[in-house]
Write a structure and sequence with these properties.
Blueprint lengths: L2 H35 L6 E5 H22 L1 H13 L1 H20 L3 E7 L2 E6 L7 H19 L1
Antiparallel strand pairs: 1-3, 2-3
Helix pairs in contact: 1-2, 1-5, 2-3, 4-5
């Protein structure tokens, strides 16, 4: 195998490892947001974005560290983009989540913004299975994270 082929293969393996990290990170992010949003008892829940941001920050930091182990340059680029988009990233993720909820429940969910950085959700029917929302939403989060890397 030539050196050029070896480099291509190594780059492909690095890209694959980064993709796996981004995918698992997107699943963790989706799980955290959904667990905050879906009521355990009753039909009301609230998203406190400050607390959620703190949880997601640790998930993103873990992803940065894992990517740095695979390729330090890609890890630094990901870290830079997360910092650059830090003011809007959470709002984008929440907007995508609300879009997924509305797609799944149509008029069966009411969204209220009683205070800055707090969102209240009221579901008209009891929610029993959110796996279909998690799959759709985690793919949207994955696309956002992939977009950060360019």
């Amino acid at each position: 195998m030539s050196k050029k082929q070896s480099n291509r293969r190594r780059n492909s393996l690095v890209r694959l490892e980064v993709e796996k990290i981004l995918y698992s990170t997107s699943e963790e992010v989706a799980f955290q947001i959904i667990s905050f949003a879906v009521p355990t008892n009753g039909n009301k829940s609230s998203l406190e974005l400050w607390e959620l941001e703190n949880r997601l920050t640790s998930i993103f930091n873990s992803a940065i560290n894992l990517i740095r182990e695979v390729n330090s340059n890609v890890g630094e680029a990901f870290s830079f983009e997360l910092k650059r988009r830090s003011r809007t990233l959470m709002d984008d993720l929440i907007s995508l989540f609300l879009e997924s909820l509305r797609d799944a429940f149509r008029e069966g969910v009411d969204v209220d913004y009683p205070m800055p950085r707090v969102i209240r959700l009221t579901f008209r029917n009891k929610i029993e299975n959110v796996a279909f929302i998690k799959k759709d939403y985690s793919m949207k989060v994955y696309e956002v994270l992939r977009h950060l890397l360019g």
